[in-house]
Amino acid sequence: MNxxxxxxxxxxxxxxxxxxxxxLNRFLxxxxxxxxxxxxxxxxxxxxxxxxxxxxxxxxxARGEISSETTIVESTSGNMGIGLAxxxxxxxxxxxxxxxPRAQKQNLAIIEALGGQIEMVHQPLGGDLLAARIAKVxxxxxxxxxxxxxxxxxxxxxxxxxxxxxxxxxDDALNxxxxxxxxxxSSTGTAQGCRDYLRxxxxxxxxxxxxxxxxxxxxxxxxxxxxxxLGAGKEPRLAAGQSFDQVVRVTDLDCVVGCRKLAxxxxxxxxxxxxGVLTSVGRMQHELAGKRCVAVLHDSGTRYLETVFNDQWxxxxxxxxxxxxxxxxxxxxxxxxxxxxx
Length: 342
Known about the structure:
By secondary structure, this protein is α/β, with parallel strands linked by helices. It has helices at 50-62, 79-91, 105-113, 129-143, 157-164, 166-174, 189-200, 252-266, 272-283, 311-318, 322-330; strands at residues 21-24, 34-39, 71-75, 94-99, 117-120, 147-148, 180-184, 206-212, 246-250, 292-297, 338-340. The strands form two sheets. Strands 1-2-10-7-8-9-11 form a seven-stranded mixed beta sheet, with helices on both faces. Helix 7 (189-200) links the parallel strand 7 and strand 8 (206-212). The radius of gyration is 19 Å and the shape is globular.
C-alpha cells in the first residue's frame, strides 16, 4: 500500500512524493527481466518536478532569499512550471513562467489555473529556444522588483530533492535490491540525485541516463527535438561535467512508440520522456536478462493527448503515418538504438 495513503497530509506540498512503484508484467518480451516503474505522475502536480519545485522554494525561504513579497521567475518546458505554480500559489507568491511553443497547451492552462503568468518566447536565440527562454528570464529578473530565479538548471536543491525523495523511496521499497536504474535527462537533476544517493549507500547499481537525439548533453550534437522535457539544446550549468554509467539516446519517434506500447500492453498513459526511457529498456532487454530494473517515469500521458497520442501530430511533426506508427507499436521489435559511453 502507498504509505501516503496511511496518513493525513498537512497541505498539498506535504503530499508530494511516496509515488507508486508498479511492476510491468507485459511490456517486455522476456520474462527473465523484472521491470518496475516509479510513477511520478502520482505527485499532486502530476510530475516528478513537484519535488524540486517545492524543495527550491523551501530552501530559498530558509536561507532568507525570498519572502511572501517575492516574485518567482522560471524557465520551463511545462512540468516545472506546474510544480512551481502549485508551490507559489500555496505560499502566496507571484509566479512568472517563461515557456516556448513546444510546451503542451494543457500544461499552460494548468499553470494559469494555479495563478501563474505565462511569458511565451517564439524566436530561438542562436537557434535554440532554451537559450531564448533563459534570456527572457534574465530580462524579467532585471526589470521586476524583488524577483527571484530558482534556476532549476543550476540549483543544487534540484538533485537534492531526488536524493532525499525519489531514489530514497525506491531504495527503501526494494531494500537496495535492484540492478539497473533508467532515468530521463534534461537538467540532469533527477539522474544526479539518484546516482549520488546510490553511491552514498555503496549500491552496485548501474545508472543509465536516457537523452534525446539532438541534445547537446554528454557531448551530443545539437538538432531539432519535438518532445519537451527530454534533452537540452544548451548545456545547463547543473549538467556540466556529469557522467553516468551509460548514456543512451532516443528519437522523438522512439518516445512516441514507447508511450503507445505502454498504453497498449499495460494500460498506462505516460509522457514523452517516459516513452523514451521505456523504449531504451526494451531495446536493451536482452542485456538485462536476470536483472531487476527500475525506470523513473516523470509524468502522465494525459498532458500529451494532442501530441504524442495524436496520430495527425505524429504524422505532421515526425513524418510517420498512422499505418507506420501502428506497425511500430504492435511490433515485438524495439529497433536499433544509438548508445554511447558516458
